[in-house]
């Protein structure tokens, strides 16, 4: 009698593989937010393992776990903070791993989860589209009905994903081409410049801020073309893929822009100029930063610093030498960050814009929040408040913990913590000196800042419950 094929080891392995594959498919659709968090956590573990290899370090010895983990988190979360000198500690192999990691991380938590979900399910179904749409509007991650117009509609998600991939490739390639001559003029060897140009381009567009050389961009501090190209790359990365998509479709037809695009561009430009004016006023007579520079260079570097505190992470001045007032301004700019669904971090400029509009409408006594002929519903305002509250709580707890561990001045710790939370990468010099317990706290702060406070809240929520009744109204006294 022939043996039952179902009793064979091969059949059991095949059956187990199918069950595992089915469970993975179910995970991609059961909870978009939790799946996104799982994807990022898995990527961090993979890159931690890769950076722990002896081949990844210049010395040929395995990196300590704390340094490998922190660098992996900073890479995947496109933060830019580091506990080691990025230009000398890692080998060429390690630098390539980091280069790949920042581009993977730049795709965004939910967009990346959507792409992997697409690979698993072989098609971009409604659930997968909800995952990707969540990156353009975090409220979709909560499930349920969203009653306002979306920044990108579900039917356009496939086009958006192509826009993400294509824009990343084209923009980074264009920046690299523009940077290459400046690197040659700066004394970099032609073959080395072929590597450093795309590396700097990737770090600018992804808003990471790592440098492939020990001195960073300090050698190019008077090359205004180089610095301007870097600022342009940071700006394009920080406005967000939905805005890039809108600009690609409608160019300069402002009236056809989505409300999200209008608020993002206007708020970004306003903060860019406000930050530059603040740094100019506070640092023009500081000999350790701008005080020794001429008038033109002082003004230009004020704008450059303003752009980089939004999420860029590059600097030509010693951040640790800034006045305390300037550190506070920088912390405020970093906390806001860039646009939604972008490579930047922070609470996002649209959150600030919506809350500012809400305050203005309340002062004017208007019954609703309005902008550019559109009404912003109350649930958007509630999400904005939630984002600020979550972000402030994370920053406060991390600052208290690291201050207690290190006994460093709270203003210094606060700056680096916000830099980590908002995935900026600027540092007063504190991060490189952190003991291992504080390193882990900072890594967790970067992780929570990158995956997004709304996504984090949705991921830890057990379930969304519908309430089919209304409670009596009573107004507490506020203010």
From TrEMBL:
Topology relative to the membrane: Multi-pass membrane protein
Record's keyword annotation contains DNA repair: no
Pfam families assigned to the protein according to its UniProt record, in alphabetical order: TrkH (PF02386)
Transmembrane segments: 33-53, 65-84, 96-120, 159-180, 224-248, 260-282, 332-361, 382-405, 438-462
GO cellular component, one term: plasma membrane
InterPro entries according to UniProt: Cat_transpt (IPR003445)
GO molecular function: monoatomic cation transmembrane transporter activity
UniProt entry keywords in alphabetical sequence: Cell membrane, Ion transport, Membrane, Transmembrane, Transmembrane helix, Transport
Location of this chain's protein in the cell: Cell membrane
Annotated GO biological process: metal ion transport
Record bears the keyword Zinc: no
Name recorded for this polypeptide: Ktr system potassium uptake protein B
Taxonomic lineage of the native organism: Bacteria, Bacillati, Actinomycetota, Actinomycetes, Micrococcales
